[in-house]
């Protein structure tokens, strides 16, 4: 028998594909940060092309030269970002196909979400992704190297300086040119006399002087560098977000800075020699005639220069990589996604109390002016909520209504549909009797309810949303308040399927005293003992700060219990076992007793004294 539940809440999703939105946002962020970082790339290449111990200090007098090669890199960024996230997503899904805990339906570029992928497979997927994207990137890298090399030649001539070269350089260049046809020799001389930093002219130069192979010089070191870069980025990011900052997902600035510095440091330490070799082999100053292969390049550098030469240009590259990593990571983080989970939770938790398993979810989003960034964050949160509940996000409706909402305001509702057999519908009112046990499942916070009181108390106290949270110093007030509603569906379904439960009460607005009576017969009363669990600090603080009477706070907040189960005494042990296997915190909070009169309340809470 199908059951549906509809809830209104000021959150929503949007019918935008998060993969496409993320690729677009990260591509724009990459192009902007690449423009900022590119001058450091020019400086790095100049240092890497200097021979021996000579410290190349050429400064371009023409600022335009600091942008040489940028157009080629921006073209490369577009192709690379189109591939990166879908490739990594599909590869990691394939590698984790036998991992039951892996959330294979997540979009894995949204790295704020825990994916439970193994470290080994993250490294493998990152490496394969880096290799495949480098295959598309290498031609653009060679084009960039030609444009940058030409800009250095132009600056050298204007300033009457020259990069230090090997004593064999001129001899080998002439020998290489002499092997070409007369026509090619003339073309090479023409480009040497008049080098260009124009994208199309440089493209034409490579085609006429080197042919197709000119676009694939340095392929091996480039592929190795990209694979290692990708492995380091994905593994460092995953480690930091899952192991260090799992409780600070909304602190996007700190997360971006930390991941940027950590990833960049590891990248420079491990891949700088490969970057140096790539620059040398791709350059028209060295590559075509001085180094016959990657191993030949390594041997000659080790013999003719010091080993320290492999780390030439590390500092400008470190700055460049930091700028790029910070921009990309900041561009793909979620800001409102936790609130999207609330929309789903309010629906599916109300479905499961009927014994129904949620199947599908739909949403409606209304706003005065659509903000793509906010909508993207919401769709990520709603998708996460649906995954936690095990239901499908099948669609929704978006309405843009100018004049109906103030700027930044929006309104939504969600609808969940589930299924339950007719003889399995909860609550089983007729089966309940005195002595039945009440089990409570811990909540994660205020759970989307009581926000009128929350806002009033915060306005009264005068704390700003971005200030330190008074009951949790590791979060801002806004982050602590927006901890999403816990979704209990998957944790409860095993107990429901084993017929262990008589009823369930989702503790929302009205608290324990108003929600438990809805799940029990009129002749019984729920007796709750607040000594059975520790009252979370968030509720103590609101009680003290607002001087809220105990009777009122009990009717407003969940007080640390988000779901109540009604169970026969003989089924308590098995129910607890199943819930603990699902990593739920379970309290035995009370029992059912017979009412002495019809006027007795449906729920009383004992030991609700000195709470705060």
Automatic annotation (TrEMBL):
Solcar repeats lie at residues 117-243, 251-339. Residues 334-420 form the PurM-like N-terminal domain. Residues 433-597 form the PurM-like C-terminal domain. It is a multi-pass membrane protein. SUPFAM superfamilies: Mitochondrial carrier, PurM C-terminal domain-like, PurM N-terminal domain-like. Its main location: membrane. Keywords: ATP-binding, Ligase, Membrane, Nucleotide-binding, Purine biosynthesis, Transmembrane, Transmembrane helix. Its EC number is 6.3.3.1. This is phosphoribosylformylglycinamidine cyclo-ligase. Pathway: Purine metabolism; IMP biosynthesis via de novo pathway; 5-amino-1-(5-phospho-D-ribosyl)imidazole from N(2)-formyl-N(1)-(5-phospho-D-ribosyl)glycinamide: step 2/2. One of its GO terms (biological process) is 'de novo' IMP biosynthetic process. The keyword Ligase applies. It is an enzyme of class 6 (ligase). It comes from the Eukaryota. It is found in: Membrane. GO terms for molecular function: ATP binding; phosphoribosylamine-glycine ligase activity; phosphoribosylformylglycinamidine cyclo-ligase activity. GO terms for cellular component: cytosol; membrane. It comes from Hanseniaspora valbyensis NRRL Y-1626.
